[in-house]
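Listing S7. Sequence submitted for prediction.
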Amino acid sequence: MSSEKKMIKQRVMSGTRTTGALHLGHYLGWLVNCLKLQNDYECFFGVMDWHGMTSAYKSAHEIKKWNRDIFAEMVAWGLDPEKNTLFIQSMVPEHIELFMIFSNLTPLGWLERVPTWKDAEEEAKANDTHNLGRFAYPVLQAADIAIYQGGLVPVGQDQISHLELTREIIRRFNKLYQGQLPEPKALLTETPAFPGLDGRKMSKSYGNSILLDEEEKSLKKKINSMVTDPQRATRENPGNPDVCNVYTYHKLFSSEADQSWAAQGCRSAGIGCGDCKAKLCENIGQMLKKPREIKKDLLNNPTRLDSIIEAGCEKARQEARKNITLVKEWMKL
């Protein structure tokens, strides 16, 4: 028997809201980081449908379909259900139980200071999502992390302040009940700036997104609709790729050789915008092809998909039950 101690991997917890099918923004901002993290950490990755309900409660009948779609997408892109714990939030009831415990010890003032609440409050009032669930969103996030004793949470630099509220809630719990929940630390990840097809933030509500399961015909139509450098009024006019949204996409999804071809061809008018878009469409289409086929196969075999979902949720429930038991012991409930 080796005298060397087996290295224990640090535990990561992360999730994506159930708001519909995933698009390229989700891929760059979340999924690609998860694919990297699964090789070095013990990972819990969730489809967070309670979070989605805070703004999509009027579309509750679609939540189950979206959950399955996102879960299939995660597996199709390579998140290994054997290596990771993949789960659907509402199928692990301990999330809500710990949320209720945390809700009672979280001062309202803490939530009122949350930047995302203050910045979006007027918008929430306008679209009828100015509700308790959205206000208490950070408390549920804290419960999501603590129920698995997550030690690391992948976030961008702009999200560190949000994670600090989770740390404050857990810190207060530990002080009140002599608990030992870990205070999660930020695992800084790179999230490149990525605009939608029209230059605005990519969002399904704007109709400017490319879905991860986009079919070839639809993909071509969307990319052909992209606005290019306005100085290129004709094929003969040289352009500036640095102000062109199509080139922004090339920098994210094309090889260095194709990026160089697109930039030089644009500046010299050696290629037209149609040529540039066609190459981008080819490159993105090639990237989407295999995951799209795997996802389609999973969705067409519901028994197989259900078994993967149930196995992942049971793994999550086992860990969550263990930790909620500890929480209650600390509280002497």
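Caption to Listing S7: primary sequence and predicted structure tokens for the chain studied. Residues 1-5 have pLDDT under 50 and may be disordered. Strands lie at 11-17, 42-48, 85-88, 152-155, 185-188.
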